[in-house]
Amino acid sequence: QVSVINTVDTSHEDMIHDAQMDYYGTRLATCSSDRSVKIFDVRNGGQILIADLRGHEGPVWQVAWAHPMYGNILASCSYDRKVIIWKEENGTWEKTYEYTGHDSSVNSVCWAPHDYGLILACGSSDGAISLLSYTGDGQWEVKKISNAHTIGCNAVTWAPAVVPGSLIEQPSGQKPNYIKRFASGGCDNLVKIWKEEEGQWKEEQKLEAHSDWVRDVAWAPSIGLPTSTIASCSQDGRVFIWTCDDASGNSWSPKLLHKFNDVVWHVSWSITANILAVSGGDNKVTLWKESVDGLWACISDVNKGQGGVSAVTEGQQNEQ
Amino acid sequence: APLTDSVPPQVVPGADPSARQLCFAWGPAEVLVCETLFGRAGGSRFRCLTRCPCPSRFWGEDRAGAAARALTGSVAGTGDGAPSSSHVFVVRRDQDIYIQTLRKLFNESHGIFMGLQRSEEDLAGKSRKAQLVQVSKNYRSVIRACMEDMHQAAVSTRDPTLQSQYSTQVSILSAMELIWNLCEILFVEAATAGPLLLRLLDWVRLHVCDVDSMVREVLNSESPSKHKLFWNVVDVFVLQGRMDEARHLLSKEASANPTSMNMYRILDDLMKKMPVPSLGNTQTLTELELKWQHWHEECQRYLQDGTFASNPHMESICKILLGDEDAILEKKELMTTWYHFLVTRLLYSHPTVKPMELRFYAQSSMDLFLGGESSPEPLDMILMAAFEFEMHQVIKECSIVLSNWWFVAHLTDLLDHCKLLQSHNLYFGSNMREFLLLEYASGLFSHHSLWQLGVDYFDHCPEYGRVYLELHIERIPLSTEQKALKVLRICEQRQMHEQVRSICKIMAMKALRNNRLGSALSWSIRAKDAAFATLISDRFLKDYCERGSFSDLDLIDNLGPSMLLSDRLTFLGKYREFHRLYGEKRFPEAARLLLTLMTAHIAPCSFWMTLLTDALPLLEQKEVIFSAEQTYELMRCLEDLTAGNPDKQKFQDDDVETTKVEMLRLALARNLARVIVKEGTVEGY
């Protein structure tokens, strides 16, 4: 049973590139080629426009909500090379920080796990990745990884926060020793994993399997297992699931989820990481889940336009 | 039929399916699907859809994933160039949890579930089984109660859409109860040959109600035997093995038609004598079989002798008694289902059927009954799987066909407690029971109050329950302080420290944004968030400087040991204490505290000026309060302050500041003078 519980008219004047629900599903942020970022209150089937944020000078590609413990904060990135961080103060949304350190379009923004503080990773077509960290009092510190990917970086995604070693509660006031990692995908056909060591970001791993630009990467949420999982999708039509079994993050092995007939643009994980949504290739959104025998099975195949019940494919074979 | 595969409705009107791609983003309970063109080449129409696909099915088909299906574009296109109607459709799956009349189902079954988890596993054999059967019956009675409510709702509403919805729900619930009941008989109770048939007969009688109104009509008529449907009703009773009732009706016919008295007596006798399995241990199966054989032969003789030849109705009944398939099949409309046919067949041809033999009879019964005219529906396949004792198949089929996880989650849990599912462990370490419970409970979390039930279910999932709870509980909107406290209590009870901290921080931030400093402070103390506590203390102090008074005095006065969370907080607490002491006129203590605040560097440098200014009234009291040493200390503090001030220029330029400093120097000097004299004087004599 499917039912529409709400219809929100965003009134964007041009193509919408991203839409994200906030942490609780109470607000919706959308961004568009019309250069605006809009925020709606969608509680109880309503749709109230809370903010129409102007500040970008080009199409806005992505929006990302920060964790609510930092307040109501939204980041947006655009073709205009800027990253803007918006914040709600006293009931109104305002620009709280603007970062202009990139030389071309910023394609992707992603907030780090809240445990690390308020940190935003930004990937740009100039090949660099910037990390903006809030240090207090309206100040942001910037760390830049230049030439992270030759030609350009298309996507960034953070690893879930896991305290290495024991999970005993730390005495209050003492910050646990997190090992911060994130992954990026770029026009060099690579997925790279970055690790912070002594305050510097270093390339930890290079994951090679794609034969064309990597369009999106998504690090799966942690459900307590020692394995890490990353999904990557590419212009080459392939989606790979990368897994690393050991905690030190050394050996990543790819498994081909599927080869699509067209570019795959977007991959994302559900909250409990049990479903991967893949969108793009041949105008479909497909949902995938790992089945008993370790193979990835397509559980839903969206066939646009035909209106009928589409075929359900169980356990599609790997094309290794 | 209630459980048919329905085509997903067209959800998004007007979306243009051509040359569009779909973007996808997960929300906590919904999913966002946007039509877009990823080339980023520039404008084209765009529709942003929000939808929530449900957690996937383990076996491969996802009902809710149909959501995405429906979403996308199965709609008439408007084509390129149509005016941009940038609509966002928020679609939700698993609407069931929002149906008010099903609330009882979720709440009460939760109670039964919890009872089952806590029940004693070490009860042996028969008593354990009886316990489990009782649990099963409890679940079924909840389903029936819901059915009743739903039926009432259907009957009392005037809205045709609602009515049809309610009616559909009633049939779905009825199908669920049908399936569950069969599973109870075959799996939970594991009825053996003999009792098995009796149970199946009960089952059929309970669930084939299509004939009830006809039965009532005939029985209530003045002269039943003259009613045109009289023989139909007799047949119904015979088919359902309700011999006494059949005989009773027949007797009316006999008294009305004395000519058939002889025939009647014989038939009546046969029906009376029919051997049936009994529930007690009064006879063994072998004994029963023997008796039955004899009886069967007797019936056969009467039939062959043409005893009933002149009355086709009675003859047909005799054939039924003999288990004649054709005769029974003729009464198809009175049985309405193949499983009724199955049970009737078994009653009259093989009453001592063993559980494992059911599958053969079931398959042939379905084939014979449907006779190639119609094909089996999902419900039929589920029941067939049950008769074949393919438990996993039953669960799988139910998962696919039913719209939410409630049924399979609870049934599987029960079967697991019956130790029937042990052998099936899944790749990722969890087992089927846990998998289904996780999915069910996850679904509950999107509901504003049912989520609390979900917590308990997660508690009883040993592998992933905790982490799923951690991930879900963080997403519950903390719309009121009460709700936040409720969520907190749950986290604290389970030592979910990260979540506790996170929630407290979120509440602190919220309070701060709404200028409720006291609330913000107590939340940050609870979160053990030193940084935030410092921030808020600064705000308090700032407010004090601006207004000259503190807010939330109670809170600050009763900080106790939590004062130590941050230096600034400690200062705040101590500073307030200073004011209290001053208010109580305990000047020497106040003075000492004031001085300590500076000399022990508890006070931030930025606040020293304020503190020194606070010292002024103490310096100008009639009585000397600060000792000489203390006065020297104060002077030193003042000098440190003015000398070490990086903004010296500004400091000197500010008239107010300069005046203050001068006043202080004067007051300190005067105090020093007085105190030297005082200390140099011998007290009294």
From TrEMBL, chain A:
One of its GO terms (biological process) is protein import into nucleus. It comes from the Eukaryota. It is found in: Lysosome membrane; Nucleus, Nuclear pore complex. SUPFAM superfamilies: WD40 repeat-like (SSF50978). WD repeats lie at residues 9-50, 53-96, 207-242. Keywords: Lysosome, mRNA transport, Nuclear pore complex, Nucleus, Protein transport, Repeat, Translocation, Transport, WD repeat. GO terms for cellular component: COPII vesicle coat; lysosomal membrane; nuclear pore outer ring. GO terms for molecular function: structural molecule activity. Pfam families: WD40. Coiled coil: none annotated. At the nuclear pore: component of the Y-shaped Nup107-160 subcomplex of the nuclear pore complex (NPC). The Nup107-160 subcomplex includes NUP160, NUP133, NUP107, NUP98, NUP85, NUP43, NUP37, SEH1 and SEC13. At the COPII coat complex: interacts with SEC31A and SEC31B. Interacts with SEC16A. Interacts with SEC16B. Component of the GATOR2 subcomplex, composed of MIOS, SEC13, SEH1L, WDR24 and WDR59. The GATOR2 complex interacts with CASTOR1 and CASTOR2; the interaction is negatively regulated by arginine. Belongs to the WD repeat SEC13 family. Functions as a component of the nuclear pore complex (NPC) and the COPII coat. At the endoplasmic reticulum, SEC13 is involved in the biogenesis of COPII-coated vesicles. Required for the exit of adipsin (CFD/ADN), an adipocyte-secreted protein from the endoplasmic reticulum. As a component of the GATOR2 complex, functions as an activator of the amino acid-sensing branch of the mTORC1 signaling pathway. The GATOR2 complex indirectly activates mTORC1 through the inhibition of the GATOR1 subcomplex. GATOR2 probably acts as an E3 ubiquitin-protein ligase toward GATOR1. In the presence of abundant amino acids, the GATOR2 complex mediates ubiquitination of the NPRL2 core component of the GATOR1 complex, leading to GATOR1 inactivation. In the absence of amino acids, GATOR2 is inhibited, activating the GATOR1 complex. This is Protein SEC13 homolog. It comes from Promerops cafer.
Automatic annotation (TrEMBL), chain B:
InterPro entries: Nucleoporin_Nup85. It comes from the Eukaryota. Pfam families: Nucleopor_Nup85 (PF07575). One of its GO terms (biological process) is mRNA export from nucleus. GO terms for molecular function: structural constituent of nuclear pore. GO terms for cellular component: nuclear membrane; nuclear pore outer ring. The keyword Chloroplast does not apply. It is found in: Nucleus, Nuclear pore complex. Keywords: Membrane, mRNA transport, Nuclear pore complex, Nucleus, Protein transport, Translocation, Transport. Belongs to the nucleoporin Nup85 family. Functions as a component of the nuclear pore complex (NPC). Component of the nuclear pore complex (NPC). This is Nuclear pore complex protein Nup85.
